[in-house]
């Protein structure tokens, strides 16, 4: 390599595939080992299909996408030197079909609910394929529900939209009797693993750790609830509320007045709530961010999302506009190194990890705003709806699914996940109500 070439940043596609796993996957594997048999690291969704479609064609379409993306046919096992990934040959994906169409409506809905719970409680073994399942439930002549469950080591929010966009395109090609022609991928996930490891072990990683050392030094912890007993379970109280279209429109207007995004406004309201309930004025809140910093990563299906700490400094008497400005400034600082895995920060800073406690923050607030496609399977249309199971990875975790151009509803959905080790269900319900009351005050104050 010449001196001129030495300064050139290598592309992800220039790297040889790594035998190991990404930092993002490693953290999930470690936590899954801490909590064996849990479903907290399952991701699930429902796809409502209306019109005539062919399950066998969908099987062929999914099989085609699995062939394209090595991550969807990769298993992970623990070896003597750490976690190792094995890429398997392409395989024929199968979709079990459950026909409930002959049942009376009340019984049909009960059976659907029971099936949904059973599938969401699937315990995946990362050393065995498949780590993705799709079941088709027939409710009527032209009404179906696809129940999707997968392990988080192969999934993030961006991947979810990418997966169904490619499945849709492959389905329609197969239905037309042609071979699916999807754009070639710039690389595979194991090349990303190699690139990520070299990047984090180099100068960039050293600068990032220096940043996080200063950014996190001296931060306290907000604990509005009991301290987790560390039972070894991740059972949760999961609640969902809907913010009507007019409410989210008001959020946009208020955010515009404050020169911030709707996310920053809602995140700041959450931070204000934690400060009021705990009495803490300096603490961290986690937020999930898309860590696809390179354009080569955009077409890849895999676990690339990262959860970063955002340091909150808020005085008890601070007016809300001041809180918003402080939160936005802190968030912008943290986003400079948004692709640095939290597990690496924890390891390099030698932070203690205890069962039932996260080492940096106990509460998260995120927007799940990755685009999802408007699906068409031949003459049939389909709508994607994310779902949740009764688990919680943090004391309190909030995920907002805002309206978008590809979602039919103008309303926003809020998933609230509370650890049963920390909150009772009644306390969880009251906390959601308290957030709604605080958000109302924020939206209507002058």
Q: What are the main properties of this structure?
A:
446 residues, alpha+beta, Chloramphenicol Acetyltransferase, 2 domains, six-stranded mixed beta sheet, four-stranded mixed beta sheet, 12 helices, 14 strands, 22% strand, globular, disordered N terminus
Chain-wise SSE layout:
Layout (H helix, E strand, L loop, with lengths): L2 H4 L16 H12 L7 E9 L4 H14 L5 E6 L2 E6 L9 E3 L5 H16 L11 E9 L2 E9 L5 H19 L13 H12 L2 H14 L19 E8 L1 H13 L4 H17 L3 E8 L16 E8 L6 H16 L6 H7 L14 E5 L7 E3 L2 E8 L8 E6 L10 E8 L5 H20 L2
Parallel strand pairs: 4-5, 10-13
Antiparallel strand pairs: 1-6, 1-12, 2-3, 5-6, 7-14, 8-9, 11-12, 13-14
Please characterize this protein's 3D structure:
There is one protein chain. This protein has helices at residues 3-6, 23-34, 55-68, 105-120, 157-175, 189-200, 203-216, 245-257, 262-278, 320-335, 342-348, 425-444, and strands at residues 42-50, 74-79, 82-87, 97-99, 132-140, 143-151, 236-243, 282-289, 306-313, 363-367, 375-377, 380-387, 396-401, 412-419. By secondary structure, the protein is of the alpha+beta class. The chain has two domains: 11-175, Chloramphenicol acetyltransferase-like domain (Chloramphenicol Acetyltransferase, 2-Layer Sandwich), CATH 3.30.559.10; 218-370 and 389-444, Chloramphenicol Acetyltransferase, CATH 3.30.559.30. α3 crosses α5 (157-175), α9 (262-278) crosses α10 (320-335) and α9 crosses α12. It is globular and about 65 Å long. The protein starts with a helix and ends with a helix. Mean pLDDT is 91; it is low at 1-8.
Quick recap of the structure?
By secondary structure, the protein is an alpha+beta fold. Helices cover 37% and strands 22% of the residues. Helix 4 (105-120) links the parallel strand 4 and strand 5.
């Amino acid at each position: 390599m010449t001196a001129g070439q030495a300064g050139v940043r290598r592309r992800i596609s220039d790297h040889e595939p790594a035998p190991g796993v990404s930092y993002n996957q490693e953290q999930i594997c470690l936590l899954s080992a801490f909590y064996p048999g849990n479903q907290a690291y399952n991701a699930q969704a429902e796809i409502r299909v209306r019109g005539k479609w062919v399950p066998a064609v969908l099987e062929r379409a999914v099989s085609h996408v699995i062939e394209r993306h090595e991550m969807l046919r990769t298993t992970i096992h623990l070896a003597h030197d750490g976690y190792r990934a094995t890429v398997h040959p392409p395989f024929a994906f199968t979709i079990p079909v459950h026909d409930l169409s002959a049942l009376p409506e009340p019984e049909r809905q009960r059976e659907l609910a029971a099936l949904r719970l059973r599938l969401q409680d699937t315990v995946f073994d990362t050393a065995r394929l498949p780590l993705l399942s799709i079941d088709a439930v027939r409710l009527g002549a032209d009404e179906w529900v696809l129940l999707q469950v997968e392990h988080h080591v192969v999934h993030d929010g961006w991947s979810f939209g990418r997966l169904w966009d490619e499945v849709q395109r492959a389905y329609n090609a197969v239905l037309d009797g042609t071979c699916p022609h999807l754009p070639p991928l710039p690389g595979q996930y194991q090349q990303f693993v190699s690139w990520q490891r070299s990047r984090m072990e180099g100068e960039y990683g050293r600068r990032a750790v220096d940043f996080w050392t200063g950014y996190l030094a001296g931060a306290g912890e907000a604990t509005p609830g009991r301290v987790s007993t560390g039972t070894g379970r991740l059972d949760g109280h999961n609640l969902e509320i809907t913010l009507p279209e007019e409410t989210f429109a008001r959020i946009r207007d208020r955010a515009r007045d404050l020169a911030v995004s709707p996310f920053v406004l809602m995140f700041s309201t959450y931070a204000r709530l934690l400060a009021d309930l705990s009495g803490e004025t300096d603490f961290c809140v986690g937020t999930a961010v898309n860590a696809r910093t390179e354009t080569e990563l955009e077409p890849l299906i895999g676990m690339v999302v990262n959860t970063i700490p955002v340091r909150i400094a808020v005085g008890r008497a601070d007016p809300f506009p001041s809180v918003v400005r402080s939160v936005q400034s802190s968030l912008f600082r943290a986003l400079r190194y948004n692709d640095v895995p939290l597990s690496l920060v924890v390891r390099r800073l030698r932070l203690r990890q205890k069962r039932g406690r996260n080492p940096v923050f106990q509460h998260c607030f995120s927007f799940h705003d990755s685009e999802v496609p408007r699906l068409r399977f031949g003459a049939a249309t389909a709508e994607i709806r994310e779902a949740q199971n009764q688990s919680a990875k943090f004391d309190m975790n909030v995920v907002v699914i805002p309206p978008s151009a590809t979602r039919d509803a103008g309303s926003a959905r809020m998933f609230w996940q509370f650890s049963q080790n920390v909150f009772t269900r009644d306390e969880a319900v009251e906390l959601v109500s308290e957030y709604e009351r605080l958000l109302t005050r924020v939206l209507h104050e002058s």
